[in-house]
Design brief:
Chain lengths: ~110, ~120
């Protein structure tokens, strides 16, 4: 149950697009289409922004999109805005009916 | 309004025990899986455990298996996490979260309760 691999930090200017990768194994991301993503602002609870690889909950901006290939899922934030500055976590359902989070990525809007 | 409110956090000595609670409201509690997730200071989210609505079926992360016990009381709409043999590295904010209906993600989160393990 090792944590999924994410870059520690990603930055971009307003309006740009950034991509956060989330790499796992054939026992988690590679085995299931059950990857979700959460946004967390400092001192706040995580907020669901993507589920089942590429679906957005109601009210979440379509600037957030996800792709998946093999053992890696990638979150793209297009048209970066100041309010996107936060920590982002991926999580995947895994074998043995457990879940594993990514280590988290700090997004900075320059 | 769907709401989860954690309680029971506090300061506990190493080797001690603590029971966290999560009061649920605004939805039919017994039909949802419920999860516990923690976040150590300045660190990332870690999934700990989940329990099915049947109050019986449970799963645990290896890191807490044997020390933490998840349970629920559907009559009281409350989720619990019994934490034993606590260590300094268990210091964290503990969140409860609802598993989305018939799905494999968490859609509603509480605000968390803080546990500090220190002498």
């Amino acid at each position: 149950q090792s944590a999924l691999t994410q870059p520690a930090s990603v930055s971009g200017s307003p309006g740009q697009s950034i991509t956060i990768s989330c790499t796992g194994t054939s026992s988690d991301i590679g085995a299931y289409n059950y990857v979700s993503w959460y946004q967390q602002h400092p001192g706040k609870a995580p907020k669901l922004i993507i589920y089942d690889v590429s679906n957005r909950p109601s009210g979440v901006s379509n600037r957030f999109s996800v792709s998946k290939s093999g053992n890696t899922a990638s979150l793209t934030i297009s048209g970066l805005q100041p309010e996107d500055e936060a920590d982002y976590y991926c999580i995947s359902y895994a074998s043995s009916s457990t879940y594993v989070f990514g280590i988290g990525t700090k997004v900075t809007v320059l | 309004e769907v709401q989860l409110v954690e309680s029971g956090g506090g300061l506990v000595q190493p080797g001690g025990s603590l029971r966290l609670s999560c009061a649920a409201s605004g939805f039919t509690f017994s039909t949802y899986w419920m999860h516990w997730v923690r976040q150590a200071p300045g660190k990332g989210l870690v999934w700990l455990s989940r329990i099915k609505g049947d109050e019986i079926t449970t799963n645990y992360a290896d890191s807490v298996k044997g020390r933490f016990t998840i349970s629920r009381d559907n009559a009281k709409n409350t989720l619990y996490l019994q934490m034993d043999s606590l260590r300094a590295e268990d210091t964290a904010v503990y969140y409860c979260a609802r598993g989305a209906y018939l799905a494999y993600y968490m859609d509603v989160w509480g605000k968390g309760t803080t546990v500090t393990v220190s002498s």
